[in-house]
Amino acid sequence: MTMTGTADGTMAIRAPSKLLWAAEVPRGAFGLASLLWAGAKLTAGAKGDGRPILILPGLVNSDRSNFLMRRYLKWLGYHVEGWGLGRNLGTKAIGSNGEKLLERIGALHAETGQPVTLIGISLGGIMARFAAHRAPHLVREVITISSPFAGSPRATNVWRAFEFLTGDRIDSDHVRAQAAEIAMPLPVKATAIWSRSDGLVNGLICRANDPGCRNIEIRSSHLGVQVRPETLRALADVLSGSAAR
């Protein structure tokens, strides 16, 4: 977790160290392998109530990246779907004002007759918060996982990749305005799952400071965080209402 002093005496949050960044791939592989001995932890998760859940993938990922998460939550008893918008390339995927994503959430709401729980990984979590601000009547709850919504995008090691892949510039007026909206307290229940040892984004900007958002810390890399047993069990506890505040 990297912080430095500034001229006015406050602390500036910086991107994770190069060491943490370099360790992302082996740590992500270990996280996937840890599923092999996590059976007891995962099967102890509380059973679901059939509520609709939409899972939003991280930058450049598609629904395939969340296959294990969807399978686990379906096994618990929830109505889980992928977002169906292809690879997450920012506004190229959801529209300049999120209209494609809002349409997808609206369709699931209409199909089930219930507000939708949004689970977003990394950039997907940022989009989930955006959607909840724009259409709170469609959303029951937002759960973000390693999503850097609460600080400068330069406190990450991926902001240049974000600009290249999405075509959006982090300093543009449009992106700044949306980022400010996303960081505001949500009008629905919210949980932020984060890791201080994340090698791609600083964990401090993946958690909220407002009392309306539950923050749950796990120990994880950024890559593969969606398949970590700690993440999956945290989701089960949040959805069942048994997670600590």
Could you characterize what this model shows?
The structure is a single chain. With 245 residues, the chain is of the alpha/beta class. It has one domain: Alpha/Beta hydrolase fold, catalytic domain (Rossmann fold). It has helices spanning 18-22, 24-33, 39-43, 67-76, 91-94, 99-112, 123-134, 159-166, 173-183, 229-240; strands at residues 3-5, 11-13, 52-56, 79-82, 116-121, 139-145, 189-194, 213-217. The strands form two sheets. A six-stranded parallel sheet has the order 4-3-5-6-7-8, sandwiched between helices. Strand 3, helix 4 (67-76) and strand 4 form a beta-alpha-beta unit. The longest helix is centred in the middle third of the chain and has 14 residues, at 99-112. The two termini are 23 Å apart.
Mean pLDDT: 92
Major sheet: arrangement of strands = 4-3-5-6-7-8
What is the level-2 CATH architecture name?
Answer: 3-Layer(aba) Sandwich
Per CATH, what is the topology?
Rossmann fold
Number of helices: 10
Report the top-level CATH class: Alpha Beta
Count of domains: 1
* Beta strand count: 8
Can you write the helix and strand succession as a string?
EEHHHEHEHHEHEHHEEH
What portion of the residues fall into strands of 2 or more residues? Answer: 15-25%
Structural class: alpha/beta
Task: Give the tags.
alpha/beta; 10 helices; single chain; six-stranded parallel β-sheet; disordered N terminus; 245 residues; Rossmann fold; globular; two-stranded antiparallel sheet; 37% helix
Précis, in short:
The protein has 245 residues and is α/β, with parallel strands linked by helices.
List the helices and strands and how they pair.
Blueprint: E1 3-5, E2 11-13, H1 18-22, H2 24-33, H3 39-43, E3 52-56, H4 67-76, E4 79-82, H5 91-94, H6 99-112, E5 116-121, H7 123-134, E6 139-145, H8 159-166, H9 173-183, E7 189-194, E8 213-217, H10 229-240
Helix pairs in contact: 7-9
